[in-house]
Amino acid sequence: MSPLLIAANEENPLVPPIPELVIGLLAFVIVFGFLAKKLLPNINKVLEERREAIEGGIEKAEAAQTEAQSVLEQYKAQLAEARHEAARLRQEAQEQGAALIAEMRAEGQRQREEIVAAGHAQIEADRKAASSALRQDVGKLATDLAGKLVGESLEDHARQSRVIDRFLDELEEKAEAGR
Questions:
Q1: 85 DSSP 8-state letter
Q2: pLDDT tens-place string over residues 57-113
Q3: Cα–Cα distance measured from residue 70 to residue 102, given in angstroms and rounded to the nearest whole number
Q4: Highest taxon of the source (predicted)?
Q5: Domains in the chain: how many in total?
Q6: Contact, 164 vs 135, CB < 8 A?
Q7: Which residues have CB under 8 Å from 24's CB, separation 6+?
Q8: 6 in a domain, yes or no?
Q9: Is residue 161 part of a domain?
């Protein structure tokens, strides 16, 4: 026989036998039908749930981000308001401090003036007391000295007072004229 006929009688290894092809095709249709009826809806359901969960998560994330942004804006507004309030309180405290310092200075000035006035009054009272005591002592000494010079006693108090007052008044006038 010829080699071509021998090759034609022999089966081609690339082409399967028809009964195997029919059984394989039938098994494929059964498995594919089973997958399409039972497994594919479950897979599609799980995929749909996953897609919805992802989309819902994205929406929730966007909502959370929007809410976080609004909370951040509120926080910034509150912070700005708090800073403004702090600045106002600082300014108010500075103004109160300045007013308190001015008040304390005025009070100190008033007290100083009172002390100075009291000191002047005390000095004037002391000067008058010293002047009166000095007049009496000078008058007594002058009358004693005059009595010794004249050799008579000048015990007449009325005359003695007039002489002493006149003498001291003349001394005061000369002292004031010398200034």
A1: H
A2: 888 889 999 999 999 999 999 999 999 999 999 999 999 999 999 999 999 999 999
A3: 47
A4: Bacteria
A5: 1
A6: yes
A7: 16
A8: no
A9: yes
For residue 143, the tally of other CB atoms under 10 A from its CB is 20
Cα–chain-centroid distance for residue 43? Answer: 63
Which token pair is 36?
A: 């399409």
Q: Residues near 143 by Cβ (< 8 Å), separated by ≥ 6?
A: 154, 160, 163, 164
| 141, pLDDT greater than 90 | no
Contact criterion met (CB below 8 Å) for 138 and 164 = yes
> Between vectors from CA 151 to CA 138 and to CA 162, what angle results, nearest 5°?
40
> Which amino acid type is present at position 59?
E
pLDDT score, position 152 = 57
- Is 156 part of a structural domain of the chain? yes
What's the confidence (pLDDT) of residue 135?
A: 75
Helix (H) or strand (E) holding 54: helix 40-150
Residue type, 40: L
Give me the domain span that covers residue 90. Answer: 17-178
With a pLDDT cut of 90, the percent of the chain lying above it is 46
